[in-house]
């Protein structure tokens, strides 16, 4: 699978930067068309799944949504949820099925355009040129940790969610998890289920029920065409790209994450982090609102499903609606980190994108690529695997096959145009 990096050529028709599911999917299509190309991977195939997920991590979407091109999930549990090692094995098996020209351990240092119209790639194994480039490095590059972390007492261990592996990694004592997106809620649960004392700072992330009226909610939404909706037709338009995902889990065969239940069991819930002063962490007075909004988001999805069932005349069991089992008192809250024996903090507040190695005028004011379905403003430069590149599934296993097939068409058109010019 891994090509000897000493064999890098001076020129390729296409370079794919990134060897995750997006880059491999692009390589699959290029290989099928016998288009000369190379895939450069900074680390190892499946690196983020191997090295940036905790031990009990599993997918939150059913296995049947794993639809890499020519390699859909074919295991015994289509409605199960692959664990971390299974995800890595799936990616490795996909790559082995067509033997992509991957160079692992090769980092790209610069991408720029030359005066002759070719693109030059400088990497840790040398410099070469290409006609076209697919940037498939995703959108999560630099772990985000707010400056407020500098105010935390130095004896408290602080890590980003991408560094968390298991409860034993953190010192004995209570743990504060900051952020209630998918990672934050699942890590807080992982610590809680291991018997650790947990404080969770709850933000505005929405939640969703795992199952409703006899089926996984993902199954209903798929039938409703939710995952085929392009970003331009989404009610939030491009703003949806920056929104947190609904929290739910595939753990224990798949179930809800209900923070109110965890609070009844002893998990301490707070609002957003506001400040840290002299070892005291202050939280905003928004816990009630954040929990209510998360619940309402789940109920809104159920309303959509009810309407779909009624419209299509589907026979489905009735189900009682959600009733909150715990209510916070409201008001601002605070934790004296020392007095509460908080020995560790897990920051789960996302990542920042970084494309500073691309020396091309193709970014907006926030440094994010300007593109339509991955086609940038620079002919011959494409992006793949970004969240909501085209649909909800673009950054996941479910939609990357369609996105990469679309880019293949654009790449072929560009190659044909180049041949016409030189002939």
**If helices are DSSP runs of H or I spanning 4 or more residues, what is the number of helices?**
8
Give the total of beta strands: 24
Query: Quick one: CATH class of the largest domain?
Result: Alpha Beta
What general form does the structure show? globular
Helix content: 10-25%
CATH architecture of the largest domain: 3-Layer(bba) Sandwich
Count of individual domains = 2
CATH topology of the largest domain: FAD/NAD(P)-binding domain
Into which percentage range does the β-strand content fall? 15-25%
Keywords: Oxidoreductase
Protein name: MSMEG_0569 family flavin-dependent oxidoreductase
Pfam families: Pyr_redox_3
InterPro entries: Auxin_biosynth/cation_transpt, CHP04046_FMN-dependent, FAD/NAD-bd_sf
Explain what the structure shows.
It contains 8 helices and 24 strands. 39% of the residues are buried. The protein folds into 2 domains: 5-141 and 353-422, FAD/NAD(P)-binding domain, CATH 3.50.50; 143-347, 3-Layer(bba) Sandwich (FAD/NAD(P)-binding domain), CATH 3.50.50.60. The chain has helices spanning 21-32, 47-51, 84-96, 182-193, 217-223, 259-264, 287-312, 400-422, and strands spanning 11-17, 37-41, 67-68, 71-72, 102-104, 108-113, 119-123, 126-135, 142-143, 157-160, 174-178, 198-201, 211-212, 215-216, 268-270, 273-277, 280-283, 333-336, 342-347, 351-352, 358-359, 371-372, 375-376, 381-383. The chain has 423 residues and is an alpha/beta fold. Helix 1 packs across helix 8 (400-422). The strands form 7 sheets. Strands 1, 2, 5, 6, 7, 8, 21 and 24 form an 8-stranded mixed beta sheet that branches. Strands 10-19-11-12-15 form a 5-stranded parallel beta sheet.
């Amino acid at each position: 699978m891994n090509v000897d990096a000493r064999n890098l050529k001076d020129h390729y028709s296409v370079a794919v930067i990134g060897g995750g599911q997006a880059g491999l999917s692009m390589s699959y299509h290029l290989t099928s068309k016998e288009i000369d190309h190379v895939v450069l991977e900074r680390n190892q195939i499946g690196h983020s799944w191997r090295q940036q997920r905790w031990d009990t991590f599993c997918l939150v979407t059913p296995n049947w949504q794993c639809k890499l091109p020519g390699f859909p999930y074919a295991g015994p549990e289509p409605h199960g949820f692959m664990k971390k090692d299974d995800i890595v094995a799936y990616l490795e098996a996909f790559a082995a099925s067509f033997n992509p020209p991957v160079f692992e351990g090769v980092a790209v240092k610069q991408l720029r355009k030359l005066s002759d119209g070719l693109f030059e790639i400088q990497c840790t194994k040398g410099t070469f040129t290409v006609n076209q480039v697919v940037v498939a490095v995703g959108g999560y590059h630099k772990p985000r940790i707010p400056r407020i972390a500098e105010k935390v007492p130095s004896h408290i261990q602080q890590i980003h969610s991408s560094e968390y592996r298991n409860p034993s990694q953190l010192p004995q004592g209570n743990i504060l998890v900051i952020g209630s997106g998918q990672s934050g809620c699942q890590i807080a649960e992982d610590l809680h289920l291991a018997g650790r004392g947990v404080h969770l700072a709850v933000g505005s992330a929405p939640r969703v029920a795992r199952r409703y009226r006899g089926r996984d909610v993902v199954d209903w939404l798929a039938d409703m065409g939710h995952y085929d909706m392009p970003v331009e037709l989404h009610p939030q338009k491009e703003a949806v790209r920056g929104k947190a995902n609904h929290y739910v889990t595939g753990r224990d065969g798949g179930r809800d994450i209900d923070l109110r239940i965890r609070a009844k069991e002893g998990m301490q819930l707070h609002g957003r982090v506001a400040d840290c002063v002299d070892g005291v962490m202050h939280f905003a007075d928004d816990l009630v609102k954040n929990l209510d909004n998360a619940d309402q988001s789940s109920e809104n999805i159920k309303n959509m499903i009810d309407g779909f069932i009624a419209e299509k005349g589907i026979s489905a069991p009735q189900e009682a609606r959600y009733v909150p089992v715990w209510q916070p008192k409201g008001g601002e809250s605070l934790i004296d980190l020392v007095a509460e024996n908080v020995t560790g903090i897990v920051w789960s507040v996302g990542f920042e994108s970084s494309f500073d190695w691309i020396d091309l005028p193709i970014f907006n004011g926030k440094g994010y690529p300007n593109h339509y379905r991955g086609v940038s403003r620079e002919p011959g430069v494409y992006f793949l695997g970004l969240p909501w590149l085209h649909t909800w599934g673009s950054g996941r296993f479910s939609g990357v096959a369609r996105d990469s097939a679309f880019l293949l068409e654009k790449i072929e058109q560009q190659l044909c145009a180049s041949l016409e010019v030189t002939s």
